[in-house]
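3.2 Worked example (two chains)
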Amino acid sequence: MSWSPAVTVAAVVERRGRFLMVRETIEGKQVINQPAGHLEDNESLVDAAIRETLEETAYRFVPEALVGLYRYRAPITGATFLRATFSGSVQGPLPGARLSPEILEAIWLTPEELEAQEAELRSPLVLRCIRDHLAGARYPLTVLAEFTPDELPAQL
């Protein structure tokens, strides 16, 4: 039997002590999350984070660093996720941009507000990524290598 984790990305954006978050509806329940989503075919991790942030917040994300890579196994479904979380800044919001259907709103919350609403967070990854960012976790984007088939050695 074949198994593979779902690869996801997330954006951590801090502005004046507040973090860009989304309130979304997942399986009929309202939750709070970073702008985040699944990696699409033929897309880099960085490009996925830029796209997801735009689709979910109407802000143009400018990634500056990798906060970390996180493996998470959802307790109810057993699904495993491998999440690449980036920190950076945003430009916008873009006028007239339409948010993904599951997104109710983009909001800016302080760490204290996030802690107080921990039960409403989509997963434990949300707070962990914020805490890691606040602790200074920053890795250069150059740690991520993207290869196209013409860049690989012939023996591969």
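3.2.1 Second chain
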Amino acid sequence: MVTEPLSKAGATEIIFPLIMSEMGIFFRHSKTMAKFKGSFKNLALSSVSLIEKEAVVREIEAIIEQKFLQYCDPGIPVQILLRRISRIGFGRIRLATRHPCHYPTGVEMRQEEKEKVFAICLDMIEQENALYQIDYLRRFHWFIDHTFQVDALVYLINELRHNFLGPLVDRAWANIAAVFDHHPPGYC
């Protein structure tokens, strides 16, 4: 090619790799990520405030939404899958920035932060369960299985040891039950 092809606004057949590419470009070259040395893993540094971390996540989320996700057609299975997988992906980034393992030994997370992480993990598990509920996405179950959110599930179960009542707790238990419905013993 003599010239670079023009990009097209909207969803195309290669939307998934385009999103992955856009995220890679953002993490490597954006001014926002310069503070984190261009690495997604550096978002977990305890020396960076949660406000700064959340700003990074909101920025990349807005870019992906504006360039790609807003054009997804809810009638096209791959694009439904993509929207939900993207939401799970942003949840993974948020969980990585707030994960309890980043706290020094003996330092406990504030209750407000625990609730935020709980909500993030619950949303991730709900998104995954929703993908299993859509019958015409059955052919994509291999992909959903491949991206299973173990960290989110473990965090929910761990926190439920201490929380016994409330609508969020009921939602969490219902979604954990659904996870086991989708992954029965001997599934793998």
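3.3 Remarks
Residues 15-182 form one domain.
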